[in-house]
Amino acid sequence: MELADEDFDFLTNEDKDFVQTLRRRFHDDFAQREADGRAYPCFFGPIALARILRAVDGNVEKACEWFQAFLQAISERGAEDLIQDVIRRFEAAKSDTIHASMLPHYDVVKDFYHAELHALQLSPDGDIIMYLPLIDHDKNGIMEHMDWDQWVTYSKAGTVLQCLALDSLSKRTGRIARIVLVVDMEGCSLDLVMNRTFLRAHRRDVVDCFQQKVAAEIVANVYVINLPWTLANLFTLCKTFVPAKFLQKVRVLSGDSLRDSSFVKHCGGPEQVAGFFASRKGLAANSSQKAHKELHSLDLWPEADELELVGRLRAKFADEFERRAQTGQDWPCLFSDLALARVLRGNEGYFSESVNWFQKFLEKMAEHQVDPLVAKMTQRLEESGLDRGCTSMLPHASEIEKHFRCVFSAPRLTPSGDVIWYVPLGDLDRESLIEEVDWAHWVEFLRAMVILRAVEAHKLSESQGRMVKCIMILDLHGSGTTATGFPKVEDFDDRNQANMKFMRQVVIEVLGPVYVLNAPWVAVKAFNWFKALVPERFSQKLMLLDGDGTSDQDFLELVSESQLKHLLATRVGLVSGETDANSGDALVAAGDCFQRCRDLRAGRTISWSFSVVAGDGDAWLGASDIEFSASLWLHPEFAQDEQPEEENVVVEAVIVQASKGEVSGKYTASRDGVITLRWSNEHSRLRSKTVRYRIDL
């Protein structure tokens, strides 16, 4: 079909050239659709195609890529049927003015969502004005009371209906019409606006897979009005990360927006704007907020209401549960009532999202043949006789510990009974992992770690009668992290994304809060400011602490001060080129310390010797000295029947000067444990010291 200039003379020459280019490149698609009556003008007409070019700032190749993705999107199951259904509804209405009642499932949706799709008055430029009061967007009600597929269908149909209306208006007025969107925040708190489960699901099932792929350049401007002060500050913070092109379309107004004459004029005049405000229903404000919105922070064993939902999940996947029971693969850590309660809590208690997560979980289990790995890690934990895992249980541990070190399970649990996982990123040498470790071994190691954590959490939960989680301590010391972020190692980071995805899709609600130590000062301050603006449930899983956490009393009560010292002592510094050697010269920076941790079996003896090397400045500043001490911890990997205790002092802290020469000592363990030898230069703020040491086991 050739363009008739007299019909579309408002299109630019660039627009017209692009339309012809697109028709040539996708000739077969256009020909087939025109023959089948499926070349819908709102998507395949000259105006719709010109929108694509304008959406990518005139880049023809990007526009063609976009069109290819669009063809793929509408070829997905049900998309064509939906488009044709909406076209019939639009034509039956015999009006260019669209309204929500024209959409499928409106009778159900109207109790939870209200928006004015097409105001009576157009903007001065001739664009459609859409009014969306967020107080009438009851995300919680939609998730709890509606069939999610109904909401997805309604939302997708709304996008198609807008494309139809804009195409009709554009032909009638002789210009490419768009939408002026007015988002009204009156009466909204961030808690009401931000339902993370809804937003995640809506983006996944509506925005990313449909709206962004079928509607190009349909929005002219976005007015965000009546914005509370807190949200206005949050927008100011977040707009740094938003594309500049989108920001050019957004204008944020706080306070009484009726006093802004420019806004009122652009939105159809004072009567129309006042009518918008009068139409607010308060659907979200009147919604009964679910008590489960804090479920992710609970550690209670599931009770009757949760067990009812667990039963529904079992019924939904009855065939899978029956098959696993018959084959002995109904692993408690993944398929018990407690494991299913984790699925529910990880999805804010919403059944439809829990079903969606569990379906993808089963697919991931099959795709990566996870069952043999669960069997292996369950067996290793059982054979150990322990209730906690350790890295030596993982495949390829001896190979990987040269490039990645962590304390998989700290000696002491938290006061409530959660396990602590200490990960010093200064001991994650990604470059050497890529160069020296078979990538398949790294993948197997990480997947086994995820599964072992789930097995461990279930075993601890059963013994404690509560939902045990893993508290993670992420230490940035020596990692190279700055205020601009964690340094990127592309060869590692890009490939490792698949491992992160595996973790998210196989285990849920096992990881509790993450405490970040030694973050750059600027990052800590910015994060703490941000935390004050957002609901607690969005920030409480990530805590950035000043320094090494020793000044935070709540953190010390959680971890215990002596145990924190032990964890910090396990750092080696692999990223900076350090090795966990038994001998050598160590430069201990001013205000810093040097430590070596060694595992000790009962009856074995560790001996050490060291000397402080005299420095060039000794004549001016006094003899070089170092403070030496040694302490012992029982570790869960080596503990027998008793609970781990506080650290035991093996050598009291003593100052050793260079003039003393070589100092030696030894210790024979009566019980299995971990001994830490510590050379501290924290008392010196001016100069570094060198220690020459040797350790023998």
Automatic annotation (TrEMBL):
Against InterPro entries, the record matches this protein to: CRAL-TRIO_dom (IPR001251), CRAL-TRIO_dom_sf (IPR036865), EF_Hand_1_Ca_BS (IPR018247), GOLD_dom (IPR009038), GOLD_dom_sf (IPR036598), SEC14/CRAL-TRIO_domain (IPR051064)
Q: Which Pfam families match?
A: CRAL_TRIO
GO CC, sorted alphabetically, is:
cytoplasm
- The organism's superkingdom is given as Eukaryota
By its UniProt entry, which PROSITE patterns does this protein fall under?
Answer: CRAL_TRIO, EF_HAND_1, GOLD
Where the record annotates domain GOLD, the positions are 591-697
Ranges where the CRAL-TRIO domain occurs: 105-281, 396-580
Protein's recorded name? CRAL-TRIO domain-containing protein
From which source organism is this entry? Symbiodinium necroappetens
